[in-house]
Amino acid sequence: MKDYNDSMFLIETKVPEAEIIISRTDLKGVITYANHIFCEISGYDDHELIGKPHSIVRHPDMPKAVFKELWESLEKTGKWEGYVKNLRKDNGYYWVYASISGVYKDGKLIEYKSLRRPISFEEKVNAQIHYDNMKKEIGEPTRHIEYR
Ligand SMILES: Cc1cc2nc3c(=O)[nH]c(=O)nc-3n(C[C@H](O)[C@H](O)[C@H](O)COP(=O)(O)O)c2cc1C
Q1: Tell me, what CATH number does 78's domain have?
Q2: How many angstroms does the Cα of residue 29 sit away from the middle of ligand 1?
C-alpha cells in the first residue's frame, strides 16, 4: 500500500453505466483474469494485473476491517458484496459496488469472481463517511475530504 500524502489520490475516474468491471482471482486473491474495462478503469494493462494480488488496487482510504470481513464472508458463505474505493495506477481512484462470489467446477470451489457496478454520488459520500468513521474508531489515519 502507498503512503499517505494529501496531494495524491484526488482524481476520480467515473465508471461507465453500461460496463461491468470483471476480475477473477485464485482462492488467495491473486488475479487470474481482468476484463478490458477493469484494465481501462484501473489504468493497468492485463499483464500487469494477472499474477498480482488484488490488493494492487487497494486504496488507503479503505479500512482493513472491510477486507477482513470480505474474506471471512467468502470463507463462510462464498459471497461478499459492498462498496469499494479502488486505487488507479496513476494514484487516482474509482468507486464501485462489488459482488464477489465463488466459481465452481464439478461442485468444487476453484476461484472467486468479482463483478462491479458504478454507484451514485450520494452512495460514494455515504460510503466514504462510513469508512472514515471505521478508521477513526481504531485510530487509522483519515484525510479531510471536501465533497462538491
Ligand atoms: C474476487 C476478489 C476481488 C477483489 N477485489 C478487490 C478490489 O477491487 N479492491 C481491493 O482493494 N481488494 C479487493 N479484494 C480483496 C483483496 O484480495 C485484499 O484482501 C485487499 O485488497 C486488502 O489487501 P491486504 O489484505 O493485503 O491488506 C478482492 C478479493 C477477491 C477474492
Answers
A1: 3.30.450.20
A2: 6
CB atoms within 10 A of CB 120: 10
Q: What is the pLDDT of residues 111-125, one digit of tens each?
A: 999 999 999 999 999
Mean pLDDT of 22-27: 98
Between helix 64-77 and helix 121-137 the angle, nearest 10°, is 100
Report the SS3 class of residue 103. Answer: strand
Residue 109 near ligand 1, beta carbon < 6 Å? no
Residue 120 belongs to a domain: yes
Separation CA 100–CA 81 (nearest Å):
6
- Statement: the pTM of the whole predicted model exceeds 0.85: yes
Which triple of cell numbers denotes residue 44? 493497468
